[in-house]
Recover the amino acids of this structure.
């Protein structure tokens, strides 16, 4: 039996595993793919969104996230967020909410995460898929998994659900909401892709010459290259329900991350729906890439470096926990007493007014707090949540689903799990003040408690 079992090695899961193991407990990490990083690696999602306060004055998501960033920077795999300002190519020329993003390389992140896991003795099980929880009444004691080795049962004192979709909690019978049930909507998915061999100076010159023509109308943003998209549409070379291009410069000057395709109505808990998303996503990525080569100055000789091996998912299940974080909590900049990290990421809801649209709402303050209670699922003991499946309404989840907050959640869940093992109590019985004290000792910035 292990002490802590982490299911899912995405941004939340890998941080949970590292931070739990650093406190001396035995940790096993289960990941269905062949690397950690989840959306950051398999999904090619980038950059890391802001980790600063709403004014862009200080880095507030620190701890394990800051350590990973600094390791990436040292190896030449990332640019430190303090060097990245809003309104530049690194932020797709967006200012509000995009100040101090972190451009990074996915392949470098894979290496760094492997190294950090092995340094602290985490047992890594790649190519291993979660099947179902093992329950004793209302307590989780382990999970069933499937791999090339067959079907196995893994047992642990505490399990952390970092699957993104809340698979462990949902299959354990914890109630959940699917997307925005009030509106009957789930945020669209995106097939990210990366391009290289780009004349970046030419791309930037074209966009700089048209910055005065950025505008918003009827819930739709007309930003980077919307004038080129209009030209392509007129010529019959653009069929997508998008009006501009989301593209972010990467650490290497000739490489760009493209966040443009839009896949509506995708249910990431359905293999049928995911299959449709992957196929349609690659088709859209191909059309967008051909658009770049034909219409965008500086991209005539661009190369398609890679499409993501997993479609980017923004939303699925919101597991019901001891506390349901709301959009009002975030927008009012509330910091509950049991906050395990603070963030200032804006509410970002894609597709709210149709496939071309998004809603982006900054908070009314410097930052907000995410409470420990949102990491504690209802009904089941011995289980913690971290990542985009945590207990939050759909709109609030639109802010904290991005990667720096997910990594901060992972650190909180991992430390909570380790402390629960050491104190022989369930995560729900753990004293939040003890957890917060340990988080501060491990580099988490909680200024309201300084």
């Amino acid at each position: 039996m292990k002490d802590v079992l982490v299911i899912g090695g995405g941004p939340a899961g890998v941080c949970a595993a590292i931070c739990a193991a650093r406190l001396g407990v035995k940790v096993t990490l289960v990941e269905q793919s062949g690397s950690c990083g989840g959306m950051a690696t398999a999904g090619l999602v980038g950059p890391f969104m802001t980790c600063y306060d709403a004014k862009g004055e200080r880095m507030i998501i620190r701890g394990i996230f800051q350590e990973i960033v600094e390791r990436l920077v040292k190896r030449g795999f990332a640019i430190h967020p303090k060097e990245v300002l809003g309104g530049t190519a690194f932020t797709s020329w967006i200012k509000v909410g995009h100040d101090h993003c972190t451009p990074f390389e996915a392949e470098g992140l894979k290496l760094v995460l492997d190294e950090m896991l092995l340094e602290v003795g985490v047992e890594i099980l790649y190519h291993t898929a979660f099947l179902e929880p093992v329950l004793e009444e209302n307590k989780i004691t382990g999970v069933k998994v499937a791999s090339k080795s067959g079907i196995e049962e893994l047992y642990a004192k505490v399990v952390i659900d970092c699957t993104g979709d809340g698979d462990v909690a949902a299959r354990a019978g914890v109630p959940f909401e699917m997307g925005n049930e009030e509106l009957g909507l789930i945020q669209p998915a995106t097939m990210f892709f990366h391009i290289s061999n780009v004349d970046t100076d030419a791309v930037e010159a074209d966009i700089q010459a048209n910055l005065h023509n950025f505008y918003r109308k009827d819930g739709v943003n007309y930003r980077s290259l919307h004038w080129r998209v209009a030209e392509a549409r007129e010529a019959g070379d653009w069929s997508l329900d998008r009006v501009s291009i989301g593209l972010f410069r990467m650490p290497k000057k000739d490489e760009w991350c493209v966040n443009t395709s839009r896949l509506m109505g995708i249910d990431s808990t359905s293999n049928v729906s995911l299959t449709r998303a992957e196929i349609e996503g690659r088709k859209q990525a191909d059309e967008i890439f051909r658009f770049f080569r034909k219409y965008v100055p500086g991209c005539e000789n661009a190369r398609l470096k890679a499409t993501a091996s997993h479609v980017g998912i923004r939303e699925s299940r919101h597991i019901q926990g001891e506390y349901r974080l709301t959009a009002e909590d975030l927008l009012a900049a509330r910091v509950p007493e049991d906050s395990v990290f603070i963030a200032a990421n804006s509410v970002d809801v894609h597709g709210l007014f149709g496939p071309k649209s998004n809603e982006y709402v900054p908070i009314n303050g410097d930052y907000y707090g995410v409470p420990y209670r949102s990491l504690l699922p209802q009904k089941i003991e011995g289980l913690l949540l971290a990542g985009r499946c945590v207990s939050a309404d759909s709109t609030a989840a639109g802010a904290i689903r991005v990667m720096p907050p997910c990594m901060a959640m992972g650190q909180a869940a991992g430390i909570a799990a380790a402390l629960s093992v050491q104190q022989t109590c369930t995560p729900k019985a753990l004293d939040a003040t003890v957890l917060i004290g340990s988080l501060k000792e491990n580099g988490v910035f909680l200024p309201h408690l300084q």
In short: Residues 271-295 form the longest helix (25 residues). Residues 193-307 form one domain. The chain has a mean pLDDT of 97.
